[in-house]
Amino acid sequence: MPKYSNDVRDQLSFNYIGDFYFTSVYASLVMITGKVLFGFILGNIASTLANAEVGRVHYEEKLGTVQVLSHALHFKLYVNEFILNPSHW
Known about the structure:
Elements: H1 6-72, H2 77-84
């Protein structure tokens, strides 16, 4: 085993520890950034789904109002089905 002076040993151990410190800090920052980005994307998806649910409920309320009105005005059955079944459009 070669003999090194104390200066060389100190320099080698400092380079190893310094490299390990930089790597661990970099890995930690990458993981934190990934978690924040994942949370941001997940929050946007949840917001989009909530807005779609509100739109669906609003549409069903309007459709229910049209159905009540069509029954109150005594529309014929085929007219009711045409109005309330959007697949005919």
